[in-house]
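Lab notebook page, bench 4
Experiment: in silico fold of construct C2
Operator: M.H.
Input chain length: 86 residues
Purpose: comparison with the prior construct
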Amino acid sequence: MARSSKSASASSPVSLRADEQDLTYLNRDLSKVILLDTNPEHAALQPDNAIIIPPWDGKGGENGLVELIPFLECESAGGHHCQCES
């Protein structure tokens, strides 16, 4: 089922698929928004803002989100002086 919304950058309604997330609803500067999701289709409208992670399988020992903490802390501080590990 499609829904209609007003985009912050457009005055005409935008038709969304049910599985899409429109980050403009946040009414924030999208250069400062990160979407963490397990489904790339959810990020179809703003793919540059997305980090797609594997879904949690419920098993112990998974630390994918924990491994993102240094990156997210760096980005929240402005991201200009961060040194990412490759």
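Observations: The first strand starts at residue 3 and ends at 6. The beta strands are 3-6, 13-16, 35-37, 50-52.
Next step: discuss at group meeting.
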